[in-house]
Amino acid sequence: MIVRGAERRGLHDDARTVAAALDRVPEDEELVLVGHSYAGLVVREAADLRPGAVDHLVLVDGWAGPDGASLFALAPDAFVTAIRAAASGDGWRIPPPPPAAFGVTDDAAWLADHLVPQALRTFTEATRLTGAVDRVPGTAIHCRPAAYPFDRFAAALGYRTLPLDGPHDVMLTDPERLVRLLLDGRGRPMRFENRKFEV
Question: From edge to edge, which strands make up the β-sheet containing 160-165?
Fold first, then answer.
């Protein structure tokens, strides 16, 4: 099912949706905002809109850049060409890749049934950042072997980077290992610059 108006949906829409969710979190709650892949751009823009609500950002193999960066601006030319070609059917909708493209082989059929197309505009729309997000500490978990230089994107923003052996969708293939990386060896929340990360 395709939602009416989905072709006009973009990065700013997704960031506003996350920011609205942040508005519902009690002010005295510590909050760590996590974004995977494209959502790296989304959570950074949402945190820029609500910097007082976010105590820490965590990117998991996340696209991220400074003000004005889009996913296409960060991606290699071959990626951009492939995505534009995939949108050639109706010009705006990118069909989801097969789960195996990101390392998911167990339960691949189930996952494929739940994936939905993504609007081309989410790839092309540039972030709008005031600089407020730069005051929110960040950590980036980058999967190895690397498909794209997610560690370098994060390091350029001043984020601490942590490697994790596994495919891009490691939270589906090995969620326990991802959680162990976020938790210390005693199963307690890991400290992020004197702020706790709650799973």
Answer: 32-36, 56-60, 138-144, 160-165
Using CA of residue 81, residue 116, residue 142, residue 128, what is the dihedral sign? positive
How far does CA 68 lie from the centroid of its chain?
17
What phi and psi values does residue 131 have, to the nearest 5 degrees?
Answer: 110, -10
Crossing angle, helix 39-49 and helix 11-22, to 10 degrees?
A: 50
Relative to beta strand 138-144, strand 160-165 is: parallel
Widest distance between CA atoms in the chain: 51
Residue for token pair 């990360």: 197
CA atoms 158, 120, 16, 199: torsion sign: negative
Distance CA 199, CA 188 (A): 10
Look up residue 144 and give its two tokens. Answer: 């190895």
DSSP state letter for 135: G
63, 90 Cβ separation under 8 angstroms: no
Which residue, chain included where needed, has tokens 């400290």?
191
98 Cα distance to chain centroid: 19
Q: Please write the tens of the pLDDT for every residue from 39-84.
A: 999 999 999 999 999 999 999 999 999 999 999 999 999 999 999 9
Number of H helices, E strands in the chain: 9, 8
Dihedral sign for Cα 96, 33, 147, 84, please. positive
